[in-house]
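User: Sequence recovery, please. Input:
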């Protein structure tokens, strides 16, 4: 693992480290300032390894954890690992990247959406909807019933006041609605209902969904 950390350190930039928060809203206390393209290059160089991914994650370093999500083996990701890593999420980028690179292909992906959605921690709850968003885009075999149930969950949680959560809810709603015509109709109906609610976050999610989905 030391060699991987050295590879990342060689690609680090103090300017980029500063811009992570000010420019991209990625706030984490343990980061080097490595560009995404460089992290992807390191991951390609390493290849797949579940054991290495675990060690990189345990380092606590932002870039090492990003690479961990790229080199881990989805079929070996366990339910307990998903819960542990999700509890460590401390910014939107690590949350979304892990969900899109890894968790959506893990055997227990669908089992995490509902329980995480009910959790109070900002990035655990965002993880639920980032995972749903990713599943809507990548799980080509999931039945419509699963997404119909997820829409009900989305509506239930739509009044959350935290932008980091509502952004993921909004993206998940739109992604579900773009899977097929039947889900588009259901997502539009959900969005219209949200747009009529007294909750500001729910109205915003609903209006955004209607704008995106109610067009040819």
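Assistant: Recovered sequence (216 residues):
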């Amino acid at each position: 693992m030391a060699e991987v950390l050295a590879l990342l350190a060689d690609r680090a930039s103090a300017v980029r480290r500063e811009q992570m928060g000010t420019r991209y809203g990625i706030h984490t206390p343990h980061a080097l300032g490595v560009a995404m393209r460089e992290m992807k290059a390191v991951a390609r160089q390493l290849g797949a390894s579940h054991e290495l991914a675990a060690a990189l994650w345990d380092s606590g370093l932002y870039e090492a954890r990003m690479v961990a999500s790229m080199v881990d083996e989805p079929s070996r990701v366990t339910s307990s690992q998903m819960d542990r890593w999700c509890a460590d999420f401390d910014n939107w980028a690590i949350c979304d990247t892990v969900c899109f690179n890894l968790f959506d292909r893990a055997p227990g992906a669908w089992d995490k959406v509902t329980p995480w959605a009910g959790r109070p921690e900002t990035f655990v709850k965002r993880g639920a909807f980032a995972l749903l968003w990713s599943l809507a885009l990548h799980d080509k075999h999931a039945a419509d019933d699963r997404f119909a149930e997820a829409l009900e969950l989305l509506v239930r949680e739509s009044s959350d006041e935290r932008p980091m959560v509502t952004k993921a809810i909004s993206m998940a709603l739109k992604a579900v609605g773009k899977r097929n015509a039947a889900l588009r109709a259901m997502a539009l109906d959900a969005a219209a209902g949200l747009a009529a609610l007294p909750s500001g976050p729910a109205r915003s999610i609903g209006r955004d969904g209607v704008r995106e989905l109610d067009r040819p």
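The radius of gyration is 18 Å.
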